[in-house]
Amino acid sequence: MVVAVLLGSVRSDRVGERVAKWVIAELESRGHEAVLVDPMTLKLPLLDRMWKEVKNEKGSEHAELKAKLQPLAELYQRADGFAIVTAEYNHSAPPALVNLIDYFLEEYFYRPSAIVCYSATPFGGVRAAVQLRSLLAEVGMGSIPTLQPVPAAGDALSAEGVPLTQQLAEKSGKFFDEFEWYMRALAAERKRGTPTGTAA
């Protein structure tokens, strides 16, 4: 399976990189191809026009934006699922993550998402995850039932993304098992066709 791992925070002192490294390592240990999508590296402007609105335009006005979005569009078309790594800002998802997600739409359809939320508090970012569920459903990559919170993320993972707590090291299997199940199930159904009458 191919998984796009969307990292939400662009803060200079973010710990989200640790969480994303852990997610990628877990997915790769299960034989999946996990590809990081980092808005800090992409430096996308605030959304003005979506990918579907600029991809066929000629001229240089949107050339830089198209060059950034084209690889993402190609990755998302290959993806079987999306792992969303989100911080919690004011009980909600970071604006950089929302902006990143909003650039696309059809590319997400009939593919599951799995939310890995984190924070510096014992709550592990679950309030952001609850807010995020509605957005993910609306763009067509509804989230699996189980959440994977990472409380006190700076202490729970090393800088290399290695778990430092027994909870994270040993009790996240159900989350990834469930994500795999949804990816396999929806991949099989996409091959058979979708409610829109096309294979996705």
Automatic annotation (TrEMBL):
InterPro entries: Flavoprotein-like_sf, FMN_Rdtase-like_dom, NAD(P)H-dep_reductase. GO terms for cellular component: cytosol. Pfam families: FMN_red (PF03358). Gene3D superfamilies: 3.40.50.360. One of its GO terms (molecular function) is oxidoreductase activity. Residues 1-147 form the NADPH-dependent FMN reductase-like domain. This is NADPH-dependent FMN reductase. It comes from Granulicella tundricola (strain ATCC BAA-1859 / DSM 23138 / MP5ACTX9).
